[in-house]
Amino acid sequence: MEHSRWKRASERKLAEGHRESAHVEQERQELRLSMALAKVVYDRRTELGLSQTELAARAGLTQAKISRIEGSDTIPTLPLLTKLARGLNASLNIAIDEDDAQVTLTAHEAA
């Protein structure tokens, strides 16, 4: 079945009142959060004109770790997030609510 048909079928089921299991909803929320982090890291890195290797050097991480973060392929620890924020010269803000999670980076002003 092509993806667009699956999506319509899924949306149709949800509109009809079908609910996904709590486990599936939790996994979707975790994936959305991971993807939000990946997007803000990529956006800030490219805004700074850095390669993954350059960001890795600034953050004290490996290029492979930066790639996994930007690809939503890892669950970062708090120490890793701290290094990443420092490397991006920004404050990392994560707001987690019951049904929503948002990730933003606030750039530090140049000295």
TrEMBL record:
InterPro entries documented for this protein: Cro/C1-type_HTH, Lambda_DNA-bd_dom_sf
Domain HTH cro/C1-type residues, every copy: 41-95
Ranges for region Disordered: 1-28
Signal peptide start and end residues: none
A matching Pfam family: HTH_3
Protein's UniProt name: Ribosome-binding protein aMBF1 (Putative translation factor)
